[in-house]
Amino acid sequence: MKAILIISLVALSFPAQADLFKCTDPQTKRPLYQTEPCAGAAVEQRLEVERRSAEEEAAAAERLRVWQARLAEEEALKAEIAKEQWEAQLKAAEVEAARRNAAAPNERVRAQHRQADEMSRPPLVVTVPAPDAMQQLPSMNGDRRNTDRTLR
């Protein structure tokens, strides 16, 4: 970026040597600026380029220098802000990790208490009749055929 600015400063410091022509393309109606006369059916307009005095060139160079200094300050400020944001995100991640590490022992204790509670309860015993015994049971409405059909 600095190279472009330096090249433009050098280009602006020399007085204009060539004529400038504004050509309008008849098909697209767009203006084209060039140093040679317009070719074909394009509409041509010759532009007068004013030559700058040494004082004007010095003033332009000073404006460019001031603009470059402001640009450098802005870029430095943006870099500083980005660094601060990165540090804030890093600190937030560290705080979150510390919070999780602090909560981990409590979670382990809770899990151990749940496991101990489950082990201290008497086991739940459910007696399921054997399939042969299920066929011998009468159905609720007294129709044994219904029961047989549902069990198969």
**What characterizes the major β-sheet?**
3 strands, antiparallel
Q: What's the average pLDDT?
A: 77
Q: What's the arrangement of strands in the largest beta sheet?
A: 2-1-3
Rg calculated over all Cα atoms: 44 Å
Structural class comes to mainly alpha
Low-confidence stretches: none
Global outline: elongated
Helix content: 55-70%
Query: Could you tell me the strand content as a percent range?
Result: 5-15%
The end-to-end span amounts to 84 Å
- H and E string: HEEEHHH
Number of helices: 4
The tally of beta strands, per DSSP, is: 3
Overview of the molecule:
With 152 residues, the chain is mostly helical. Helix content is 61%, strand content 9%. The protein is built from 4 helices and 3 strands. The protein has helices at 2-13, 54-120, 131-136, 144-151; strands at 20-24, 31-34, 43-47. The chain has a 3-stranded antiparallel beta sheet, with no helix packed on it. The longest helix is centred in the middle third of the chain and has 67 residues, at 54-120. The two termini are 84 Å apart. The model has no long low-confidence stretch (mean pLDDT 77).
Which characteristics define this entry?
three-stranded antiparallel β-sheet
Indicate the topology.
Blueprint (H helix, E strand, L loop, with lengths): L1 H12 L6 E5 L6 E4 L8 E5 L6 H67 L10 H6 L7 H8 L1
Antiparallel strand pairs: 1-2, 1-3
Quick description:
61% of the residues lie in helices and 9% in strands. With 152 residues, it is mainly α. A hairpin with a 6-residue loop joins strand 1 and strand 2 (31-34).
